[in-house]
Amino acid sequence: MRKAIITAAITGSVHTPSMSPYLPVSERQIIDEVLAVHAAGGTVAHVHVREEANGMPCAEQESFRRIAAEVKSRCDIILCTTTGGRLGEPVSKRVQVATTLRPELASLNAGSLNFALFQTLGKFKEFKFDWEESYLRSTEDFIFPNTFKTMREFLKIFNTTGTKPEFEIYDVGMINNLAYFIGQGVVKTPVYLQFVMGILGGIPATAENLVFLVETARRQIGRFEFSVCAAGNAQFPMCTQSLIMGGHARVGLEDNLYLEKGVLARSNAEQVAKIIRIGRELGIEPATPEEARSMLGLKGLAQVDF
Prior knowledge:
Oligomer: single chain
CATH superfamily: Aldolase class I
Number of helices: 11
Helix content: 25-40%
Strand order of the largest sheet: 2-3-6-7-10-11-12-13
CATH topology: TIM Barrel
Largest sheet: 8 strands, parallel, barrel
Shape: globular
């Protein structure tokens, strides 16, 4: 059977605590969710951290360290740390986790975009915490900055720490950005792409657009592995298409709070179990963490700093 990398994006920086009682926000909740994802057959956990008191996304380095250290002591799942951080986080703070933990895998956003969440405000009448409404509203006038200088500086740090970039591709122009760095010799192939679809400001989550992304990457990059994540109710259809096309899949509460229409997912592990069931119907098994390390050329747990 073919093997696919199944990633769970545990909490992210998009959804706020009022949107779901099952969104993990504390360190303990995030650790428990990662361990449950591993037990369900997940390969990778994509990790953001949040403030303990109110669930606001942050880039607290000791939170990253405590979460990563306990997870490593209890299982061999691959941790993919974010360098996206909280929307509006200073660029220098976003990349700090790469030098703090020297992880095997970390996200690297391949371009700037209007990252909009303000359109969700009409769905919620009350918020648990004061920061939530203003955080969402501010994205009407927000650009998620990932300039060529930013990317070059991030890549230099990743090369120093031996961290494999997971290139987050929100739109087709970002493939061109990455192809430029490959042409300059700054990035070596094969690369690992995460096609992030359905964000307002990025490429819509459609079957045609995923084919377009993959074909464009084949022409401009050549050698790569790809995974797909999609916002909201597009999550499972787009992840299924990715598996059919020979790619990998990312689910998780960062991208979608639901298990099916009208039913909130009670955990990331529920979503992992669902996409694994779908994959098995297609003759695809979830890759183990060790298999994924080989597939992606990761340095291994012995060389991280947590």
